[in-house]
Structure formats: C-alpha cells, structure tokens
Give the backbone structure.
Amino acid sequence: MYEAEGIGLAANQIGVNKNLFIVDISHTDDNEFARVFINGKILESEGESIYSEGCLSLPNLSFDVKRPEKITFNYLNENREENTETFNGLLARAIQHEVDHLNGILIIDRVSNLSKILFENEIRKIKQS
C-alpha cells in the first residue's frame, strides 16, 4: 500500500478472506494515524461530494466518484474494541472505498458508462495482466 502511495487496503485485495481493512491518511492530516477497521458497517450517511479516486487494483487510473460526504461507522479496532464514529472528508471517502472492496465493488463500478468507455483500453490491459 505505501509503496504504491495508497491510503487504504482491504484484506481481500491481498487474498485474505476477512472483513478487515486499513486506512492511513496521516500524510494529509497531522491529527490522523493508520487505522484498522474490522467487521465495519456504515450506519448512516449524509451529504454528497464528487472526488477523484484512484485504486491499487486499477493502477494509474482515477475516476470522479460520487459518495456521501459524512458517514457514521461501527467497527472493531485492532484491539477488538467496538467503536462507532462519525467520519467526513477524505477519511470517510477512504472507508467507503475499502468497504466497497470488501463487497466486491470497484470504483469503475461507480462511474458513468462514458468514463468506462474513455478508459476501456487501459482497463482491458489491467485485466489481462
């Protein structure tokens, strides 16, 4: 994740069949740290924003993705302590992105058909490698 300059990684992206992911946005926010989320569930969401997202599963591509701006998320941390927190901004977006991975959804599944067509050749190359 760090070598590819990513900010999140879901367990299933590395072949581990667990409901677990890590998000680290500490390089963008001095008040943040690497966080582990286990068995997470989005309880509420509100607002809406569009932001360009990249993905370790689709290297060198990014897409404008619409997501809720704010989420309330229930999860276990790395010590198996239960937490319910409200997140917004980049951290909320990263959590939603990783939850999508755990549910088999990629950012390409959240964009318009036009965006898919524009990047069709690049996506085909990634699938073949």
